[in-house]
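User: Could you check the structure of this?
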Amino acid sequence: YTSSRDQFNMAGGITALDDAIREYLFFRGFVNTLKQFETEKKEDRDKELNANKIVDYLIQCVERLDFTELRSFWTHLHERFFSRLNNDNRQAAYKFETSLLRLYLVHATAQGRHDEVKTFFHEMSSVLSVKKEWKDWFVLPFTKNPETNPAFRIYFSREWYQTFNASLRNFFNTIFTYLPKPSLLNFEQEQSRMQSIAAENHHLHNQLATTKSSLAAAEQQIQQLEVKLTSQEAANIPAMSLNKSKGKKSQKKKSPEEISITVAPADKATLSAVSGESVSVKRTEVPSAFVDASGEGILIPYPVGPEGKSPFFPVSQEVYNGHNHPITHCSFSPNASRIASVDSDSLLKVWSSSSTQNTVASYQSKSPILCMDWVSPADSLVSCHSNSNHNKALITPATDWLC
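Assistant: Sure, the predicted structure tokens are below.
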């Protein structure tokens, strides 16, 4: 069914187009053409293609018992519209014609106009006698109280009349919607559609500007939070002090609060911090006074330091990205050419400590990695794994990590 809004647009478009034509003819001085246009418009049999006007006129013909005009008007509709329809819609039009004629007979019977009923069958007998759906209706003029007869009772009910009326209006609305429209009528509808599109584009532009403004404000807020977070992290980094070791390596046991790591000589990269999902490395220039007696590295006690100051002088800093989970272990190789890191998902990665920041190798352990370190001087990795049954240690030669 076609909505009443579609029908309103059709009728409104035709009315507006008629007004435009009338205005144009008057502007051009086509007086005789304008008079003829007005005359034919008053006798408009198409009722401006308005379904409500057409159905109302058909009902008026029935109520006036004007059978001649009823047949004439329906014939006009058939020639004008129904004959152009596809087979299914033509069948629907025929069923509506049958119901309309039965409505005429029911109304004439209800009004006691039996003469009109006899006239109807006299004029239509040659057409209806060959149609089996009219076989039982030829006894209508001779039936007493047909409103109680099972064959006719439903047609005398108000429910049937209301259903027929509404269905006929929807039928006309449907066929008018799919009629080929003249270019002038399409132009008005196209203009209305373009105006709707322009209004929608304007709304979308405004929405885009609002979204951009909100995004800029969010980015500014993120930058402010990053600056604040960086300041807090810088304030929370514990002070570190460098103690020069003399003579042989001390055999003294370190306290739990003091953790020392051995890093590369002065011109090598030194690990400064590990947090989140990345490994942060600072390249430093280490004074020769801080190199231990063995000459292999420097000893950095944590967190003790003179006046909370670090003796290192940062030169540059690189961030190695590749982990998707927090880092749990990280260590330089003895020759400072490799960096090994482990995250909480037991993913072990070996990095190149050069400025290219290449990933040399990766290993996904099926069991948790409890610890990891390099074995000197072979430059091999040793890692301790654990599962529900036992612990095990794996030693991987350096050649396995070379690309």
